Amino acid sequence: MKLAYTPTITGRAVAYKTIDVDGVDIAYREAGKTTSPKLVLLHGWPASSHQFRELIPALAERFHVIAPDYPGFGHSGTPDPETFEYTFDNLAAIVEKFLAKTGFDRFGLYIQDYGGPVGFRIVTKNPHVLDWLIIQNTNAYEVGFSEAWGGLRNALWLERSEKTEKAVESLLERETIKAVYVTGSAVPELLSPDSWSSDYLLTLQRKNGRRIQMDLFYDYRTNPALYPAWQNFLKEHQPKTIIFWGQGDIFFTPEGGESYLKDLPNAQMHRLTAGHFATEDCLDYIADAILRFHERMASKGDY
Predict the structure, then answer these.
(1) For residues 191 and 109, what is the distance between their CA atoms, to the nearest angstrom?
(2) Is 276 an annotated catalytic residue?
(3) Catalytic one of 43, 64, 270, 276
(4) pLDDT one-digit tens code per residue, 227-247
């Protein structure tokens, strides 16, 4: 009897894989032909590659797309924080080795929220790996911090203690995670509750989850000190860049998005009536804009 259909990983199909990187199981999503231009998607807090679950297939016919979960996030392994330092330096080092092991030695890069500190560390260290850049609600300028950072910037970053940790514990609650998603959205009915439920259960409720996230909250203080270097990188290398900025982001101000244009005057800016996770309710617009942007680059020989 002839079989009617055998599935294959082609076209828009997404494969869910795991690879060992320095003893840590890194889960990732991958789609598209390996011969297509490579595109790396780096997720935000407290999300995972689940954040890109619909964007990946929307881009897979044009790109070879890959999106890892950081250690301690999503379906990746959770090294013991007593022996593994949850810092942005370490996350970047793991992701850099992950990309090398999966054959992504030169690529376009999509960075959102935590993806910025991770991605900027990688490309400022090795500028040759970056083909082009997609920026979506990730901060690289002091003016980009909203008032939501007060408990971190004005207390925890100055002195980590039981008292200052307790003052920001509410950031780790399910209702706060939901607020991160829905704040700023023009049509919150378009946002799937699976997103914040997934983040809360897979990342925050795992063993040592709250300790890990508090370690990263504290280490985030190292990022502003690197902003001048990241800005200099953008000014010097002028990567072809498209920016999507949810104007109602609970964490990052519209001014933070506009600041990129000082260093990247030729960047394409898209101001969205959306919040922190704009791919939740602006997916079609973002995917179409990325595809058109890359097509223009290719037609001009810029890619």
Answers:
(1) 24
(2) yes
(3) 276
(4) 999 999 999 999 999 999 999
